Task: inverse folding
């Protein structure tokens, strides 16, 4: 049980979640004594169980070291439970790199999927935008980007019940120096596919809400995400500095407080916490390391929707249909996205 | 004379600038009659002249088409003036891709510099951060990234009179999948150089102000910049929506107005308008297409500092010293950055 706060956040979050959702059973994986500290004394609540794991993966630990050296980490044990069919999904607030490496090693990728990706949802002016990959794959071929688009489409269809979500390929504006060869080739693959591909989008399009899914390689996606977080943090910093500059501005801040609170709710990162690792033979959702019970519940809810939609089968079927050269070419006609 | 507003912004901006800075002569390049419309009737003001150019490059025009087809565009004529030694610098609010292509074709790159780059300065919590490249080069080798670091160091030293500005290489956080081979190799080159290299930085580090110069390829830099703009715009959008929601929130907005105005001033993009094209045999500064007189004056001021510091010679000397295998290796010791 990882994340920045460990059981002190995850255990209360699980209890909260159980009381809100009668359909789900939760297994808490980690050091049993540490987990019990945050549970009410006596018998375990209904639909809650504990799976002891003696080790933990540190937030800064190298993924390969975690994978090789910590066979009894809470992360490894939780993913094993998915692999064994005991659990339907693993939700973790732990080390992202280690989670992806372990999930990939234990669960394996889906047929016809070369690389799993990390997908996340960001606020936009008119709602939200899903972006993948956010850091699992540094260099991506056109085929990888195409597969991300397929997986993203299936995930958004499943999790949001949106038919035919739109897909944009992240690029830069200058006409002639537009993108690398991989991006141009991915553009051709997407344009020829039955996906709802709307063409190239730029960094700022993530936040307008005019596209449902933005596809990019993990390096670019990670930089876009981190830069965005940096700007938002800087604006918050300046806002605080301005409103606390002197007694008069403090007073203005007091008057504006309810409005500033609504603003904060609008861009509350917890609302969209939960980054699915897509392309694996099993459901794994990464929760933000520093989230609280509200955010964690959101991550569990995403995992539940993936399970209910049987996302893995959907992705397999769709990728097979679109990528497998041996599949019936006529079949593509019969499927509506 | 390009940009979103053409002479209606650039001419008043030039007049303003001249009255503030007695050291600079300005040549307005564009359609003479269009320029004259925005000038006071009668003789031209002191230190102002007009160079007629019959064509204009459109903001969405393909760079190659502008370069081949518009030999008498204001952009081309302005850069020719620099090439002929008539002007010391060209400041343009026009099409970035065409400006770079034309400047590269007419002025050529500096010795030992493979590719010029676009550099810009962004707000940060504690001041500002310079970033390059912002879109001129999609795929960059380790050598290119290294040259960007050298050019960026010389520019910041010249324009800001900062000794030994710090340089960070943009990367993503996950340890083992960190960066591409080019980035790892650039990291080694930078670490072994006499530059003030502080190592890898992430997207959010651009906005903390802990580093003076962030180096990345043009694709990543452009996405980081555009994503950041997108987030800032979204926050402004939400802020406006919240403060205009009902009479009560409008009242709160009125009370908070002075504070919100100071906030806006803090993140005013005009303060940092002016993106130098570095690595060319001549000074070229790109002004934002939509800026006003204040922003345009800033771009001229950056050009002036580049001229005064003789940036091209500084970059040539520094790149030669650091990259040329034939140069005296002992010389590196004598130079303090």
Result:
């Amino acid at each position: 049980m990882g994340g920045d706060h460990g059981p002190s956040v995850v255990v209360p979050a699980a209890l909260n979640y159980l009381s809100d959702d009668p359909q789900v059973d939760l297994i808490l994986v980690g050091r049993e004594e540490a987990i019990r500290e945050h549970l009410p004394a006596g018998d375990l609540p209904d639909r809650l169980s504990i799976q002891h794991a003696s080790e933990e993966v540190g937030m800064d630990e190298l993924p390969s070291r975690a994978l090789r050296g910590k066979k009894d980490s809470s992360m490894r044990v939780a993913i094993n439970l998915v692999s064994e069919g005991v659990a339907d999904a693993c939700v973790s607030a732990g080390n992202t790199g280690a989670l992806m490496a372990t999930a990939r090693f234990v669960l394996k990728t889906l047929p016809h999927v070369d690389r799993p990706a990390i997908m996340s949802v960001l606020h936009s002016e008119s709602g939200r935008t899903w972006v993948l990959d956010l850091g699992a794959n540094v260099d991506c071929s056109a085929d990888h980007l195409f597969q991300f688009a397929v997986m993203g489409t299936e995930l958004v269809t499943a999790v949001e019940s949106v038919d035919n979500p739109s897909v944009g390929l992240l690029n830069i504006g200058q006409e002639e120096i537009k993108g690398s060869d991989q991006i141009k080739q991915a553009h051709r693959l997407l344009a020829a596919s039955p996906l709802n591909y709307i063409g190239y989008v730029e960094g700022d399009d993530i936040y307008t809400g005019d596209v449902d899914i933005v596809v990019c390689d993990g390096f670019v996606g990670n930089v876009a995400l981190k830069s965005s977080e940096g700007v938002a943090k800087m604006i918050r910093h300046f806002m605080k500095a301005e409103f606390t500059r002197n007694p008069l501005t403090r007073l203005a801040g007091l008057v504006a407080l309810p409005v500033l609170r609504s603003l904060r709710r609008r861009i509350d990162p917890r609302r969209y916490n939960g980054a699915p690792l897509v392309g694996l033979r099993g459901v794994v959702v990464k929760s933000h390391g520093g989230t609280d019970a509200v955010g964690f519940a959101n991550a569990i809810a995403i995992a539940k929707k993936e399970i209910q939609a049987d996302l893995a089968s959907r992705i397999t079927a769709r990728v097979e249909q679109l990528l497998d050269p041996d599949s019936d070419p006529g079949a593509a006609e019969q499927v509506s996205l």
In short: Chain B touches chain A through 69 residues (CB under 8 Å). Confidence is low (pLDDT under 50) at residues 327-337 of chain B. Residues 282 and 333 of chain B are 29 Å apart (CA to CA). The radius of gyration of chain B is 21 Å.
